[in-house]
Amino acid sequence: MKNTIPFTRTFPRAAAAVGVAVLLSACAGTTTSPATSAAPAAGPARPAGGHGLDAFFGSYDANRDGIVTRAEYDAIRLQRFRAADTNGDGWVSEAEYVAEFEDRLKRQYFDQGRQPDKAYENSIKQAHVRFAIVNRARDGKFTLAEDRDIADKTFKGADTNNDGKVSKEDPPRQPAARDAN
What we know:
The chain is mainly alpha-helical. Helices cover 54% and strands 6% of the residues.
C-alpha cells in the first residue's frame, strides 16, 4: 500500500479553495435542475488547467449544471487569486502563482490516483511561462486588475453567443483568419 499522506499534505490551500468555492456557490443561491440535483457539487478547480470547453467547465462550473455564469467564473477566479496571495500583500508573485497552480494540479493527480510524472513537470514549467504572460506590467507582481483584464477577455471568448453565460449551446469559436501576406 502506498503512503499518500505526504502528497496529500502538500495541497491544503487547494482543499480549502474547493471548499470556499462550493460555499460561494451555495451562498449565491445557485440551484440545480432535478436532473442534476442527485449529483453532488464537486466544486471547481478540476481540471487544474487545460484548454477547451471541457477544461473551462471543469474549472469554473461550480454547481455542475452545465452553465458557467459570469458570477461563478468571477468568484472562482477571485478565490484562486486570494489563495495564491499567501502573504496577503494584494499581488501574486511568480512563486505564489506557480504554487497555487501546483496545489490544484496535485489535487487533480491525487483524485485520479496518479503520481507526478513528466506531464506534471511540464505543466509546472508551463505555469512559469504563463506567469510571464499574465504579468503584463512585467514587474513580477500579478495584480487583481491584471487578473480581471484576463478574465474579461477569456470569458468573452468562451461566451460565443454573447448571452452572458457559457454553455454547450455556445457555438465553437471560429479560428482567426490568417493574413496571407
